[in-house]
Amino acid sequence: MSIRSLLIALALWLSAAGVASAETLVLVQGYLGSAGSWRNTGITASLHHAGWQDAGHLALTPTGVGGLVAQTTAPNRLYTVDLPTEGPIGLQAEVLAHYVTDVRARHGDD
Fold first, then answer.
1. CA 13 and chain centroid, separation
2. Of 9, 57, 59, 103, which residue is 20 to 30 A from 97 by alpha carbon distance?
3. pLDDT tens-digit readout, 13-43
4. Widest CA span of the chain, in angstroms?
């Protein structure tokens, strides 16, 4: 079984088991990865086939959070983001907080 299949199976199992529930996913890459990793490996496509809508990619700009974003109110949506993976953990946490704040403003408390 591939890593992609394992991740999808885990997400679906947690949701079905009532352990985890959300309408919005924010996919964060690992060390030296990028948001493209989620797209290039087919993870976002697999999630799409499992009922998740790709809401786009968020990017931190000098004026705040922007990026290629689809305006959607559909349930089960996902975003990809990029963190400065070689930066200090505090900087990564600060950047991630900007993304989470933006997503929360778009979709309430989900």
1. 18
2. 9
3. 666 655 556 788 888 888 888 888 888 888 8
4. 42
